[in-house]
Amino acid sequence: MTAGEKRNDKGGGRRRSEVLESFMHVEGVNEGVSEGVNEGVSRLYQAVKHNPGIRLPELSTRLNVPVKTLERWVKQLRSEKKVVFRGAAKTGGYYVVDGER
């Protein structure tokens, strides 16, 4: 540590430059994760658009994505009012909202 650098008391004795460097690394990872999620949501939307009435187990097989992940992505699309579930719980499926085609 040089004379001009201060220790960060909360960083376990790490220098500020080390703390900033690690923060920037995490920020880059978060951007990569967000990018991957957005890409997945787009793939899901396109699959529903081209296969009206499709159900999550079939989507899981076609997209090779776990059902739990698809549930999170569907939640996002539903909150954005881009897809809707129609029909009974056991036999219904997902559809693109009218006007979104």
Helix content: 55-70%
Look up the CATH topology.
Arc Repressor Mutant, subunit A
Which segments are poorly predicted (pLDDT under 50) over 5 or more consecutive residues? none
How would a textbook summarize the main sheet? 2 strands, antiparallel
Could you say which overall geometry the principal axes of the C-alpha atoms support? elongated
Rg from Cα: 22 Å
| Number of separate strands | 2
Mean pLDDT: 80
Q: What is the total number of structural domains?
A: 1
Structural class: mainly alpha
Give the strand line-up of the largest sheet. Answer: 1-2
How would you describe this structure to a colleague?
- With 101 residues, this protein is mainly α.
- The chain has a single domain, classed as Arc Repressor Mutant, subunit A (Orthogonal Bundle).
- It is built from three helices and two strands; from the N terminus they run αααββ.
- The chain has a two-stranded antiparallel sheet with strand order 1-2.
- α1 crosses α3 (67-79).
- The longest helix is centred in the first third of the chain and has 35 residues, at 16-50.
- The relative contact order is 0.11.
